[in-house]
Amino acid sequence: MADSRPDTSFAALGVPADLVAALAAQGVDTPFPIQAATLPHSLAGRDVLGRGRTGSGKTYAFVLPLLARLAERPVKRRASRPRALILAPTRELASQIDAAIAPLAKALSLRSTTIFGGVSANPQISAVRGGVDIVVACPGRLEDLTSSGDVRLDDIEITVLDEADHMADLGFLPVVRKLLDRTPRDSQRMLFSATLDAGVDVLVKRYLTDPVTHSVDSARSPVATMKHHVLHVVEGERLEVLAQLASAPGRSVVFTRTKYRAKALAKQLVKSGVPAVELHGNLGQNARTRNLSAFSDGSATTLVATDIAARGIHVDDVARVIHADPPVEHKAYLHRSGRTARAGAEGTVITLMTDAQIADVRDLTKKAGIKPNTTRVGPGHALLAQLAPGERTFVPPPAAAPKNSGGGSRGSAGRSGPARSGPARSGPARSGSGRSGAANGSGRRSANGSARQSASGSARDRSAANGSTHQGAGANGSTRQSANGSARQPVTGGGRRGANGSARQGAAANGTFRRGANGSTRDGGAANGAARQSANGSRRRGGNGAGRQGGGAQRSSRGARQG
Question: From CA 137, how far away is CA 116, in angstroms rounded?
Answer without folding.
Answer: 6
